[in-house]
Amino acid sequence: MISKARRTKSSNTWITTSSRVAAAVFGGYALAYACTAWLSIVLPLAKSEAVLTASMMSFLIYTGAILCAFATATPMRAWVVLLIPTVLLGGMTLLIT
Length: 97
Known about the structure:
97 residues; mainly alpha; elongated
């Protein structure tokens, strides 16, 4: 028979892990997309080269975001760390275009 405290701890672990995975997948993708859009505009290269360079850099950014989602102390901090730069870069991209 599983005790209530052990069952609660198990469900909290499941929720924490799910939140981190969601932050890594969705927050990381949003951050990589915002960085790609912003870098495509601000890189001082020809348009095609800027888009290609920004796209290649997005793989590094996405990998870093995934690592960040699992390296932070809490899942809430992972969401905050990923969403603040996403909103800032997205806003700057919208202001520039």
